[in-house]
């Protein structure tokens, strides 16, 4: 599997208002029920994303290991999952919605993340701060659905393929940012900062 090709298969949009909304769409060569199970079955989630605990039903709560947690706001198998997505000691509004629909003999996945983003963070990273993370997550899902092994998340950014994937994602979010009206100079700075955050250049010393 060509990881950069997988990154480039996603379509990205940004609504750059007071509340930021990033949207990703991509197709998987698997049926809706399989993709739904991969996204909601705790045992499968731990294989391609993160271990999850909680009362995993509508109205219940969840916690991803070392990451976000929140409430399961809507769960309509096998088409719609909506959760609050809270991370850190003082999280603002943040929700993630995943919609699945049949497309030919595969599945179209749409992921929408709506959040209040601190101005200093947005000014530094733009949409890539969360966008690259979601790109890598959806890459992990693609690998899982084909039975391929998940790369080591601690060393992926150090590999040539990992770094190229991160750069491709960061630049793609830069294009989405500019398409949403972002100033080209601010976009370029955000892309550089995002790339350096996810895949910093190795210190030659």
Automatic annotation (TrEMBL):
Domain of life of the native organism: Bacteria
InterPro entries found in the cross-reference section: ASHA1/2-like_C (IPR013538), START-like_dom_sf (IPR023393)
Organism expressing this protein natively: Actinomadura rubrobrunea
Similarity field: Belongs to the AHA1 family.
Protein name: Activator of HSP90 ATPase
Residues spanning the membrane: none
SUPFAM superfamilies: Bet v1-like
Domain Activator of Hsp90 ATPase homologue 1/2-like C-terminal per the UniProt entry, residue ranges: 29-138
A Pfam family per the record: AHSA1
């Amino acid at each position: 599997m060509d990881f950069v090709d997988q990154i480039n298969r996603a379509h990205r949009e940004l609504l750059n208002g007071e509340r930021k909304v990033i949207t990703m769409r991509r197709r998987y060569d698997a049926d809706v029920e399989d993709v739904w199970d991969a996204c909601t079955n705790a045992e499968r989630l731990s294989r391609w994303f993160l271990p999850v605990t909680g009362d995993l039903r509508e109205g219940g709560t969840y916690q991803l290991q070392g990451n976000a947690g929140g409430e399961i706001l809507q769960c309509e198998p096998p088409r719609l999952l909506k959760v609050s997505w809270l991370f850190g000691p003082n999280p603002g509004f943040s929700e993630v919605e995943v919609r699945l629909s049949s497309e030919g003999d595969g599945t179209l996945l749409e992921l929408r993340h709506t959040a209040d983003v601190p101005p200093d963070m947005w000014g530094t990273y733009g949409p890539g701060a969360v966008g690259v993370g979601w790109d890598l997550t959806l890459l992990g899902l693609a690998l899982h659905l084909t039975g391929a092994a998940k790369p080591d998340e601690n060393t992926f950014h150090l590999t040539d393929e990992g770094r190229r994937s991160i750069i491709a994602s960061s630049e793609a979010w830069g294009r989405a940012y500019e398409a949403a009206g972002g100033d080209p100079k601010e976009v370029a700075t955000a892309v550089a900062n995002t790339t350096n955050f996810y895949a910093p250049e190795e210190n030659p010393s």
